[in-house]
Amino acid sequence: MKKITTATLRKMKQQGEKISTITAYDASFAKIFDQAGIHAILIGDSLGMVLQGQDDTLPVNIEHMAYHTQCVKRGVENTLIISDMPFMSYATTEQAYTNAAKLMQAGASMVKIEGGKWLVDTIKGLVERGIPVCAHLGLTPQSVNVFGGFKVQGREQSQANEMIEHAKLLEAAGAQLLVLECIPANLGKAISQAVSIPTIGIGAGKDTDGQILVMHDALGISCSYMPKFSRNFLIDTGDIQKAVELYISEVTNGNFPSEDHIFN
Ligand code: KIV
């Protein structure tokens, strides 16, 4: 297998090939996912919830993210490594530069930041300094207190229109990938058609260019509840390697997500 880059993912979108993505936080799982042929691994700040047992992602800091990025890097040969910038680590552009550099030096090939058009200057500055950016719209978990809970976003037409506009602005600023979380399936489709960068959905319907799941949800080992948009692939296979292969093939064939996993 060849090393996967942002150019690979862009080409996959152009050719209509689905992108499979999963979170990982350590070398052992990263190696299994890499060898199974997953296209990208995200060291998500979801580690606050699934590793640390926190209620949300807010307590996660840049040192936690850098440590787990280093761990994942040691398990990966070909997969693209994306690392989350944690809460308030990119509140100013200067903070974004300093903290993104820590994640790139820890082994990331791209950083992910949550939010809309207020990030335009940050994205431009990061890309100009050699740091590829994945944007994240919809239910952005670092804003859970603003949303008043983990709620589906973009159901109102005005909110949906605004999200499409933000997606275009983030692309124009230089974002090379866009995660869409917990939005109606028709909005996931509309945003994916409105931008030329690949979109990766989690609870965003089946028409995004790729899918991502938190590995604990995909393997049914979450210490909290199982979200509607997820599926336990381990229960169908009884083996972690086979579960990951099944996840990849179900994403590739367009069988996951099904109607059961989407929001309207
Ligand atoms: O932190 C995370 O795992 C994420 C994914 C859910 C997209 O941001």
TrEMBL record:
It is an enzyme of class 2 (transferase). It catalyses: (6R)-5,10-methylene-5,6,7,8-tetrahydrofolate + 3-methyl-2-oxobutanoate + H2O = 2-dehydropantoate + (6S)-5,6,7,8-tetrahydrofolate. 3-methyl-2-oxobutanoate binds at D45, S46, D84, K112. Pathway: Cofactor biosynthesis; (R)-pantothenate biosynthesis; (R)-pantoate from 3-methyl-2-oxobutanoate: step 1/2. Mg(2+) binds at D45, D84, E114. Gene3D superfamilies: Phosphoenolpyruvate-binding domains. It is found in: Cytoplasm. InterPro entries: Pantoate_hydroxy_MeTrfase, Pyrv/PenolPyrv_kinase-like_dom, Pyrv_kinase-like_dom_sf. Its main location: cytoplasm. Binds 1 Mg(2+) ion per subunit. Its cofactor is Mg(2+). Keywords: Cytoplasm, Magnesium, Metal-binding, Pantothenate biosynthesis, Transferase. Its EC number is 2.1.2.11. The active site is at E181. The keyword Cytoplasm applies. Homodecamer; pentamer of dimers. Catalyzes the reversible reaction in which hydroxymethyl group from 5,10-methylenetetrahydrofolate is transferred onto alpha-ketoisovalerate to form ketopantoate. Belongs to the PanB family. This is 3-methyl-2-oxobutanoate hydroxymethyltransferase. It comes from Thalassotalea profundi.
